[in-house]
Write a structure and sequence with these properties.
Blueprint: H1 2-19, H2 26-39, E1 46-53, E2 59-66, E3 73-79, E4 91-96, E5 99-100, H3 103-114, H4 119-125, H5 141-174, H6 181-202, H7 207-233, H8 241-263, E6 268-269, E7 278-279, E8 288-289, H9 291-313, H10 315-325, H11 327-332, H12 337-363, E9 365-366, H13 370-385, H14 389-409, H15 415-429, E10 440-442, E11 445-447
Antiparallel strand pairs: 1-2, 2-3, 3-4, 4-5, 6-9, 7-8, 10-11
Length: about 450
Amino acid sequence: MGARAGLLTAALLLLLGLAGCSAVDFQQARICVAVATAVAPEDTRVSIVSVTAGSGRNVVAVTYSAGNGRAPTAVLCGFEGGPLDAGRKDLVAVRTADGDLSPPSLLFLRRFLIEAPGAVDRAIAETDWRAPPLLPLETGPGSGYVLQQAFNALALAALYGPLALAYSLIYGLTGRINMAFGEIAMIGGFGAVFGIVTASGLGVSGLAAVALAVVVAASLATLWGHAIGQTVFLPLANAPTRPFIVATVGLSLALSEFFRLAQGAGEVWLQPILERPIALTGGVFAVQVTPLRLLIVAVAVIGLPVFLLLWRRSAFGRAWRAVADDPLMARLCGTDPLVVTGQTFMLASALAAVGGASMALNYGGTSSSMGLLIGLKALIACLVGGGTPLGAALGGVVLAALEIGWAALFDGAYRDMAVLAIITLLLVLKPAGLAGRAPALEEGRVVRLS
């Protein structure tokens, strides 16, 4: 155990250490490349040689050549804030080969280049600052659009997946639905915001900042989950279903109102992180992704099989299945159902927090009201999948595919109405869900087969 803890600590320290040599902030790089085109000689083609971090805090260096036969030169751009600060786009100084720009020239540059709508994009388009695609594919308008929407659906499913898994763990164990998981995901969103603010104060950015935000979110929600489990969930474990649902609905409203009073009713916004677009394919319609979305999808694709493997083969997974199948027999064999239920609630809270943190980082903010909608959608994904962990992941994919597919083909204003109608029809035709099984009768009692 000590060796594992040491390895984990070393990995975290290495990750934090690598954060100091993270890449240049993408938004600051775009602005500095545009500045290079503005300070270059007129009527010359600007070729970008390199974009690196300059000497000093919040400084970007762009090396470029203008015209044939000219030696490469550099322009340094200083910004008010770092990658996670509010002043990340505020240009405060520019140094060229001829010296520092005067305050009037800097003001002119900010007003007519940086702040003018679309001016930075047009300036970058005049250069050769392009990144090669990751995949050796050329996509046209049709195939590119389909691949782009497919990746969008996969990214959305990766956001729904952890929260749907949280619902399935509790539902599969107790047959109850915890209506407060959306608000626990909201706690994870605020935890991610706190983690990003902490990372900014420590000078950490990039992947390390994302990892710190997710760890803070999961830890915070696990503590909340433990407190909620001990005070609300476990005392009602043997109560009828109706009081349990009423209690969890009341808990969700109480958590939402508490965070509204504590954090305000408005949105809490974050600076975009890992948002530099990456071309997956080339061609007329290149498929674009961001590193953050690619990271979320990769973690979901790798993490789901690992989770299911541990759930099937670990001691906790065996105890979970024993309590789910027969709590009395599990108790007779030495497994305490209340302990397993409490541990499951903490794990489910951490999963819900990971989903909430991913949404906060992906969409750039959170609020005290975000829990209701994402909680209901994740619950729908869980029910569509049949209430099992694997089914919850499958339900998340189905729900995301329906949402993205409808928005891509039809009017987005009717998306939620149409998707819910399709889900309702699906549940009417297959009440047990896509991966669920009907209960069997054995010796006069209902036994789960999942």
